[in-house]
Structure formats: C-alpha cells, structure tokens
Amino acid sequence: MIDFDADKPRKLREAQRSRVVPAPEQAAPIAPQSTDEGFSFETVTLETKALGGSPRAVSKLNDAMAVILALFLLVVPVPYGANNSLAWLGAAAVLAMLCAGYYTLILLLDPQRPSKLRDHPWVLGFGVLAIAGTIWQVSGVQAPALTLPSGQVQLSQATVAASASQLAVIRLISYGVLFVMMLEVCTNQLRIERMLSWIYAGIIVHAVWALVSLGFLGDTLLLGEKTAYLGYATGTFVNRNSFATFLAMGTVIGTARFMMAIYGPRARSPRRRAKSRGLTMEAVVHLGWLAILLAALAATGSRMGAFVGFLGMGSVATVILLKNGTAIWKILLSGAVLAVLLPVAMLIGGESGTMERAIFGLAQADARTELFRQTWHMIMQRPFVGYGADSYPLAFELYRTPELSAGLTWQAPHNTYLTLWSDYGLILGSVTMLAVVAALISLLRAIRRRELAYLPAAIAVAVIVLTGAHSLVDFSLEIAANVYVFIALVALGLAKRAHSRA
C-alpha cells in the first residue's frame, strides 16, 4: 500500500491521523478536500517572507557602505586638504549619492528598521539648527544695517559674502550627511572596529606620504608644486598646522590601540579584564605605527600640533588606565613617559625647528593677540546676526586697523570660536559648540556605562579635547578634511549596537 503522507513532516502526519472532528459551533482550521479517487488532501498555507524585511541583507549593505565611507575619508584630504570649493562640491555630491542610494535600499530591504538618529536628538537638533541658520543668511531676508567706521550700510542679505555663504551651506550639509551615514552604518561592534582600523590606516598612509615627499621627492604636494611651508611636512594639505591636527587624531587612535594591547582583555578570557599583559608583539607593532605618526607630526614643525597631539594621547591613555583601575600615580608616570617620548620622536624626525619655535614662539604672539582683539571688536559691532558664513576675510577688512601689518591678508582669525561668532553671531555661532558639548556628554556617559566596548568613545573624547584646544589658536577644524575625520570618529564613539527585533 502506498503511503501518500511519506513526504510530509512527521508532526503533520501524526496530526492528520489523529484528527478530531471539531464541534459544530467551532470552525475547522484545516478543511479536507475530497476527490473522486477517494484520496484526502490538505491545503497548507506557507508564509513567505517579503522583500521588505531582510536584516541580513541590510547587514551586508552596511558592510559595503562602511568600506565606501572609509575610502571616502582616505581620498577626501588629497585635493589640498579639501580646502577649496571644488573639493567641497565633489565631496558633497559623493555623500549625497551615497545617502540617497543607501536609504532607497533600506526602504526596499527593511522599511521597519528604526533609525539611529533618534538616539542622539540633541546633537542632531543643534546640527540642523546650525545648517538652518546658514540657509537663512543666504535666503534674501532683510538684515539689520551694517555699522562701519565710515557709516551704516544696508545689506540685502545677512551675509557680506553671499557666494561664499552659499558654498558653506553645501559644505555643512555634507558634514551632516556624513554624521548620519556613520551612525546608520556602524550598528555593530565588529563594523565599528573595522571602520576605526580603516580610518587609522588612512591617516598612516598620509603620514608615510608626507615623510617620503619631504625626504625623497623634493618636498612636493601630490597634485602640484608646493608654494608654502617649504622644508616642513604638509602631506596633501597646504597648511602644516592643519596637517598636524590630522596626524594628531591618528596618534590618538594609535595610542589607544597600543594601550589596549597592554591593558585589554586576554584572548582566552575576553570577559575578564587583566591589569596588564605586558609588552606583547601586538603592542610592539602598534608602537611602530605610532612612531611613524609622531615622526610625521614632528616634521610638520607645528608647535601647537605637537602640543595637542600630546594632549590627545594623554587623554585617551588616561581614560583607558582609569577604566582598568590603574592608580593615579601610575597615570602620572605614564604621562611623564609620553612627555619624554614626544621630544624624542621630534628628534628622530630630524626637525629640531619645532622645538626652537616652541621656545621662541612667545615673541611672535603680539600679532596674534592684536588679531584676536580686532576680531572681537568686529563681532561686537554685529553680535546677534554675524557677517555670514565664510565671510570673515571680506568682513575683517572693513574693520582692521593699522596695528596689524597691511601687507598680510587675514583669511581667518586663527581661533575657530571667534570665526563662528563672527560668521553667525554670538547666539547662532554657539550652536555648533553646543552640538559638540552634547556629543561629549553622551560619550562620557558611554565610557562610564560600557565595560569593554568603550574604546571608540574614549578616542572620540580625546579627539574632541585636542581639536578643541587647537581651535583656540588656529583654524585647523575649519579645514574640510579634518572636519570629515573629526565627525567620523565622534560618530563612531556615539554609534550604538542595533538590537534584534521580534
């Protein structure tokens, strides 16, 4: 006798053979269908998974997008540190296409996927407000009169340099898009660690190129002849101080990896923290990469770059030591070792000029102080509206006095905080600072809460510390390439793991 149930699952066959006829008032869940041959078949409904619910496909998409974003961060500093309008437009176009394609695929693959933006409403809100303020400046809304030493001038817009402010809108939007993409893509710890490694590798590539160009290729830029800071390492950047900030962010990552190779969890017991694993081969490798970055940093000849590099390294090392329960005296000892290591790296780099400039640089501080004073006077003439995004070079010429050399054109006040207040006014200009403060608070909470996966947050905190300090006396964080890397590292520290959904 042929068993027609042979191809059915065992549980289904047993259920069929032991079927109980339901009571008249109950509806049978499965209705048998009779045929003329006397055989009985069942209609079984199979649930199919629609295209709009594929977390595995989204994971693969995020993996691919992480690689693309890492390549973007590697390439974007090449055109002169991305410090020109063509580079801004190109970077913004690439990020816009990536964002549009990413969200289109997300809607197709997993439309119910929760957005990671809701995890950081304050950072997002302040960022949107800063962009909206810049758009308002170029919208054509009538602005208050501009008071000049020669009299009042009525502007048709809230900016004295409309074309520059319009380009600034595009650049600021690209910053926001990168931040959003980093949060959405980096939703698991492995991807965060990979992205951090790729960013670190990219900074090392730029450091190696800077040393090779300076030492063996006649000190040239990658895309053209070098016209400024001859004899100093600038990589693909025009300004050595901006390149020093770029390298300093890399030294923070290198220090964190070196410290974790010594104080991180053991491989055989990853859930147990070890006080110290000693100097392992992994630590030696990380120390070698860190030495390359320090040599390149010394070769820039940037006094403040060297200082903030030390400050960032000390900050991330302090966080790691505190998380591992290290005594305060040991932390102070580690700081002393780093204080010795930095001058040694400068000497290895063959650039004693950095040390000399650090010692005798106070004699050149008078011009910078006068620049700050005149810039503050300019800000107070228009404290609530500002002069428009990226308008400082034109606006400052309206107020500068003979105390500053007439042979120089000041493109920036060499203080990012003054730049923000000059461009946007005291209120709107502080919004960007508040966004960074909100991110810093979230990062500190993450470090305190996380037991093992706190390293990206610790790196982000150290990067905020070093860039915040450098912004007091320079405009490195006004260079697009530095801002992109800064945003990426902060976003990695803020990124949270995506939880599974029922």
Which descriptor suits the 3D outline? Answer: globular
User: What is the H/E string?
Assistant: HEEHHHEEHHHHHHHHHHHHH
End-to-end C-alpha gap: 45 Å
Strand order of the largest sheet: 1-2
Distinct helical segment count = 17
β-strand percent reads under 5%
Number of spatially distinct domains: 1
pLDDT < 50 stretches: 1-15, 17-32, 45-52
Largest sheet: 2 strands, antiparallel
Estimated structural class: mainly alpha
User: Radius of gyration, Cα only, in angstroms?
Assistant: 29 Å
- Residue share in helix: 55-70%
Quick synopsis:
This protein has one domain.
Give a structural overview.
- The chain is an all-alpha fold and about 500 residues long.
- The chain has one domain (about 55-365, about 405-495).
- Helices cover about 60% and strands about 0% of the residues.
- The chain is built from 17 helices and 4 strands.
- It has helices spanning about 10-15, 55-75, 85-110, 120-135, 160-185, 190-215, 240-265, 280-300, 305-325, 330-350, 355-360, 365-380, 390-395, 415-425, 430-450, 455-470, 480-495; strands at about 35, 40, 145-150, 150-155.
- The chain has a two-stranded antiparallel sheet. Strands 3-4 form a two-stranded antiparallel ribbon.
- β3 and β4 (about 150-155) form a beta hairpin.
- α15 runs antiparallel to α16 (about 455-470).
- It is globular and about 70 Å long.
- The chain starts with 9 loop residues before the first helix and ends in an 8-residue tail after the last helix.
- Residues about 1-15, about 15-30 and about 45-50 have low confidence and may be disordered.
